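Ticket #4471: structure export looks truncated?
Reporter: QA, pipeline team
Priority: medium

Steps to reproduce: submit the single chain below to the structure queue and open the exported record.
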Amino acid sequence: MSTVRAMTEADVAAVSEIRVTGWQAAYAGILPQSYLDRMTVEADAHQRRQYFTKPDKAAIDLVAVDARGSVVGWVCLGPSPTAGGELYALYVQPSLTGSGIGAMLLRAVHTAALARGFGSVLLWVLTDNAGARRFYERAGYVADGAVQADDYDGVSITEVRYLITL
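Actual output as written to the record:
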């Protein structure tokens, strides 16, 4: 049984491991392999530690931990530049995808969003990430028609925006 708690600086390495392996598993065949191959846990942890220790950090970081206390998932929410909250990231250890940890993290972050006064949450999902799109749709998120593109090693990758009213 997993539980959710606030992320601490001691969780940074585990979160980076989940994020990097999560990207490499979920985005294989969607993002250029050259981009995924360059990702390292060490570089991600360095960047995440710098961000996590900023005194003016506005984001909420939560982790899911298993019965042994090991971090098995991570979610990050902050203010949206347009309105309400924005789900910046949600990743589960790839071997545990589909186990309910992601849904548990999503419920916890929705509770945190409401506590912060966010009546809605938006997020961006890679258009070709069918699994993530189904996950968020089952949770009540609706694609609102907005799209954007990001460049990964010279390849333009499209994302679609989802929104939920809490």
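Status: closed, not a bug. The export was complete when the record was re-opened. Leaving a note from the reviewer for reference: The first helix runs from residue 12 to 26.
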